[in-house]
Amino acid sequence: MAANKQEEARNKSPTRQKAQELHALLAAKFGEAVELVDAVDPYTVVKDHAQFPAVMRHLREDPAFQMDFLRSVTGVDWPDDSIIESVYHVYSYRLAHAHVVKVRLPRALPEIPTVEGVWPTANWFEREAYDLLGIVYIGHSDLRRIMLPDDWVGHPLRKDYAEQEDYRGIGTTRASPLEAFKQMDLARKKARDEKGVVVVPQQSPIKPPEGWVSPKAKKGAAAEEAEEGEA
Amino acid sequence: MNTDNSLIAGDEGMVLVSKLDNLINWNRKSSIWYLLFGLACCGIELMQTGGPRADIDRFGAVPRATPRQADLMIVAGTLTYKMALRAKLLYDQMPDPKYVISMGACATCGGLFQLAYSVCKGVDKIIPVDIYVPGCPPRPEALTEGFMRIQDKMMRERWAQKLGGGARLA
User: Fold this and answer.
1) What backbone torsions phi and psi does residue A101 show, to the nearest 5 degrees?
2) Residue B170 forms part of a structural domain
3) Omega into B97 within 30° of 0, i.e. cis?
4) Cβ contacts of B110 on chain A, cutoff 8 Å
5) How far is A187 from chain B (nearest CA, A)?
6) How far apart are CA B136 and CA B133, in angstroms?
7) Domains plus CATH for chain A?
8) Residue B49's domain is classified under what CATH number?
9) Which residue of B has its CA nearest to A165?
10) Are residues A174 and B82, on separate chains, in Cβ contact within 8 Å?
């Protein structure tokens, strides 16, 4: 019952209905090339990569879409399925609606045509996805790393990324400071065992003021006095 | 009281007798110019330390925007490998004698981000560090304390003695 109510509420969600509506428009134009994936926010997957540039240009130029703003291009790595997804979030300022388009690429060689010609802002987004996930955008005007140094090895957001031992001679690991203490303890123990010397912990250099008696000593003295009084 | 110095009442005023090194160091420690080099949120605390409340300017410390005029580099914030190469370059451009404060957990060991692939695990991997200031980020008082320890270090140095070979000046 509760699950049904939840589903009902979800189906009523206007963003969800809008996404389904937009996908229906795309499907009417491109048919089998696009597929709806029914998630919390449904999105379109472009199955036919040859049609991909046409789909993106249609999103921007068709009067029913007018997606004039590319919000982001990101990537998702799915090593179990051997797939890397390139994800495009597009938005229309004029019609105030948004849509998500994904393409699924083989993990061994993830290649997809660039959308730089449709939205110039894709230039940096695609460089980022290339930098961190190694997705190759064919036709990109300047496909270099954007955040990591140019001589970096590997694409760090891939799930199987292994950190190098050093970067230009700078080590990439640091020993835990606790290890140093352990070594000190071991050395002390070794010295004690070899020489039979008991190492006394260093005493505090702070001396108590003259005439100061510790509470413990006072208690002892009071007990003695009491005993004397009884006697 | 420093026994190296003695104050004498002369005929026309007080006379201070001291060692050349003490005089040089006294000047040096009172005009430490530090490089403007904020990398992350520690940079905000660095600005606060230079601001009116902590007012590190009372030690004669003023920020310089060029390494050529700086005595002290305060590495304030998370150091990435990409930035580490630049930090090394800036350090090499500073004139001797130069000092480095590693400010905060990130600069000291990578801190919160030490498991990240892009973060350098401590600035001491690339340049020698004089003072480590713990904290995330350290308060201006903590940085001021580190700054005073740099002053102590300066007062212990004997550059004139070293460069003059300890020989008596004629």
Assistant:
1) -120, 135
2) no
3) yes
4) 174
5) 25
6) 10
7) 2-157 (3.30.460.80)
8) 3.40.50.12280
9) B117
10) no
